[in-house]
Amino acid sequence: MAKDKSKFVEAINKSYTTTGASIYLGAGILEGSIIAEAKVNLPLRMMNRHGMIAGATGSGKTRTLQVLAEQLSAAGVPVFMSDIKGDLSGIGKASTSNEKLEQRAKDLGIGFDPTEYPIELYSLSGKKGAQMRATVSEFGPTLLAKILELNDTQTGVLAILFKYADDKKLAIVDLADLKKVLTYLSEGEGAAEIKADYGTISTSTSGTILRKIVALEQMGVNNIFGEKSFDIEDLFNKQDGKGVISLMNVSDLQDKPALFSTFMLSLLAEIYQTMPEAGDLDKPKLVFFLDEAHLLFKDASKAFLDQIEQIVRLIRSKGVGVFFCSQLAQDVPSTVLAQLGNRVQHVLRAFTPNDADALKQTVKTYPKSEFYDIQSTLTQMGIGQALITVLNEKGIPTEVVHTHLTPPKSVMGPLPEAEYAAHIKSSEMNKKYGESINPESAFEILNERMQKNQEEKEEIEQEKKEAKEAAPRRGEKSTFEKVLASPVTRELGKQLVRGVLGMFFGKGARR
């Protein structure tokens, strides 16, 4: 039965029309036809209500990220996102028009205006952009435990290390500091020092944690922990009125996804802890895109999940929006998913029974639609299309709409290698974070303390040794005793005794 086109256009425009600034996502599709008049917009003021971008591999999630980043930048909103494959740097260069792009723009009833946007390139290895670092103390025990894949007991021990370091004003800057604190508190005077106030650390637990720290070092990611640590204020930069799009290139760390995803969360946690309250803004101060979100939650501890839930729930009051990107909405815990008001769902495949179950679960998260069979639509959408529902200006969920997405205006791919290298070389951020600093921290302080204690022990032992050498040995007579024991002394003693006794008893000398 044919759907009423005019009714569809009226419903979509009523649901998505905004009086303030917005992001244009695309046009609605009805029964296979693109309806240019049915415009799908996302109000900027609702971007800090967070969101979810999901879909199968190759469905167009990366280009959706690019479209959102471009329009946020144009509106003066800075963006931070990870560049998983290293192919988002093209945002810094205007696209070249071609037949496909022109046709897509024509279908949407818009013009195509190639545009470049200000970008900043960062890297955790320091090879693909300005070096991003954080001190181990800034990372905290919960996030570090996630990277080290510690169990609850080991995480508890890690918390003791951080508490002790905090109480004693010991800065844990890098992994060398962490190892030093661990070894100090698990043996000798350190273990005795913490026994009453912090408890004991078993050698087996400390050994396991130490091995995991060493394994992390062997991955070649030592550069991540240290000084100069990244200043989150640098994520809020603007250039010529446009928000800077900060890209963290992790293409050389694709085999360590938990590392970069957790690092991004650490930055988000720092923003939450340090930024002032912003109130209800017309547009966010910053939008964070957390790609490969499922890696954040895989085998995560309750403490870790609680921390994410708290950050997502409260950080919007700081004027920051967070968008999770993954293949399935179910990759995100329900307590977090419930807080993501804006949803962009790309095509889902149902090749296996597990896929079919995931599809059914996804359908349940969408409101019913009089225009679509949600389950059928989710499996039949083309690349560059998505099922969308967002929050309107009043915070009310919009109609679910099958959307033909607007194309990016910048290059859909990486910058040429020479241009990429030139961009890094000229970057002020690369100059700012290029050299590492090695301040006095836990390693040096505890080393000095342990050395001083060792010297004091050696001094005491030496004093004992000298005193022992000066004292008479067992069974050996002292010098005075030796004098008394000599034959001459004995004879003189006898004569003296006899003389004294003679005086008392009146005996005369023998004749």
Question: What does the model show?
Answer:
The structure is a single chain. The protein has 511 residues and is α/β, with parallel strands linked by helices. The chain has 3 domains: 11-133 and 233-425, P-loop containing nucleotide triphosphate hydrolases (Rossmann fold, 3-Layer(aba) Sandwich); 136-222 and 440-451; 454-504, no CATH class. Helices cover 45% and strands 14% of the residues. It has helices at residues 5-16, 61-74, 99-108, 136-148, 152-167, 175-185, 188-194, 203-218, 257-274, 294-297, 302-314, 334-337, 353-364, 374-380, 417-426, 428-433, 442-470, 479-485, 487-505, and strands spanning 22-30, 33-43, 51-54, 79-83, 119-123, 130-131, 238-239, 242-243, 245-249, 286-290, 320-326, 342-345, 385-389, 401-405. It has a 12-stranded mixed beta sheet. The protein is elongated. The termini are far apart.
CATH architecture of the largest domain: 3-Layer(aba) Sandwich
Low-confidence stretches: 496-511
Strand order in the sheet with the most strands: 2-1-14-13-12-3-11-10-4-9-5-6
The whole-number mean of residue pLDDT values reads: 88
Helix share, percent: 40-55%
The gist of it:
By secondary structure, this protein is of the alpha/beta class.
Give short descriptive properties of this protein.
about 500 residues; alpha/beta; Rossmann fold; twelve-stranded mixed beta sheet; 19 helices; elongated; disordered C terminus
